[in-house]
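Late entry, GMT complex.
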Amino acid sequence: MKIGIVCYPTFGGSGVVATELGKQLAKKGHEVHFISYDQPFRLDSFTQNIFFHEVRVSNYPLFEFAPYESALTSKLVDVVQFEKLDLLHVHYAIPHASAAHFAKQILFEKGIRIPFVTTLHGTDITLVGKDPSFKPVVSFSINKSDAVTAVSESLKQDTLSTFDLQKQIDVIPNFICCYTYAPKPDKDIRLRYAPNGEKIITHISNFRKVKRVEDVIKTFSFISKKVPSKLILVGDGPERHKMEQMCRELGTCSDTVFLGKLRSVTEILSISDLFLLTSLTESFGLSALEAMASGVPVISTNTGGLPEVNIHGETGYMSNVGDVEDLSKNSISLLTNSELHTQMVKNALARADKFDVDNILPLYENVYKQVIEKSTSLV
Ligand code: GMT
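Prediction complete; structure with ligand written out below:
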C-alpha cells in the first residue's frame, strides 16, 4: 500500500506512535509518506520506503496566525495526486482530520478518491477537542473520516460522550517494539546517577500541566526520606522551571536530575527501578508502556486509559489523581521488597509483550484494507 501519514513532528506520544507505525509499515514493504511541518524527531535516519514531505506555510505579513491547515491541505492534495497514495492516516484530530477531509473533497473534484483514517490520541478529545473553539470542526471531521481509531477503550468512551457521533470507533492500542526496549542496563550509566547503590526513579513527559509533575516531585520527596534514591526527569515543557523551583524548596535538588529532552529513552529506562506517572488524564500513557517494556514497574494514577496498560498489584500500582501519600506508600513498599519488585519486573515485561508491534500492526493494516476496498467499490 502507499500510505500518507500526517502527524506532529514534536516530542509527544502521538508523533512517536505515528512515526514508529510508519517505520514498521515501511519495513513490511509498504510505501510511507510522512507529511508534517518538520521532520518527525524519531525519523532521523534513512529508511527504505519512507519519504518526508515538509509543509511550508507562507509568512505573508498580513497573517498574524499562519494558516497551517490550508497549507497542509494543499500539500495533501499534491502528495496524494503525484505519489498516487492509496490512503491517508492522520494522527491527532486537530487540524489533521479536517485538512484530510478538505483534501479529499478537492481530490474528488479531480476524479481521485482518497479515503482517510483518523486516529484519536487523547488531548485532541479530552482537553483541546472539547473546547468550543474546536468542537464543531472536530466532531464534523471525525464523522467524515472513513475510519476512526482510538488508542484506548477509555478514549473511545470519552469521545462518544463528548461528541455527537454516527461513526464507529475501533480501539487499536498503542504499541512498542519489545526488542528495542528490552532492558540492557549499563553499569557505568547507573553508577553515574546512583553512585552509592541508590534506587533510581524515573519520570518522562512533556512537562505540561496535565502531567502533574509536581506530584512526581512531592512523591519523590516522601520516598527519598525512607529509601536512598535518585529521581531522573526526562523531557521539557512549560512546567519545568516551576518544578526546578519546587525541588529547591523541598531540598531534593541533590538527588534529582533534569535531563531535558532525549531522542532515545531506552538507556535511562534500562537503569530505572520505578517509573512514576501522575497525570491528571492520560488516554493511554505510552511512556508507562515504554517503561514496562524495559522491565520497570509503574506507579501511576488510575485515570483514563492507564488501567488498560498498568495492572494494579501486578505491573505496579495505581492511585487516585493527586493522592501523593498513596503514590509514595506504594512506591516505598515496592522499592523495599526485592521479591515483590522482581515479580513485578517480570509481570511488566510480560504485559508489555501484549502491546508488541507484531500484535498491533496487523490491526492497522486491516483497517487500511477495509477503507481502501470500500472506497474503490464506490467507483
Ligand atoms: O501526553 C501528551 O501531552 C502528548 C499527547 C500527544 O498527542 O502527543 O499524548 C497523547 O497521546 C499518546 C499517544 O497515543 C498517549 O499515550 C497519551 O496518553 C496521550 N496524552 C494524554 O492523553 C494526556
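The mean pLDDT is 95. Will revisit in the morning.
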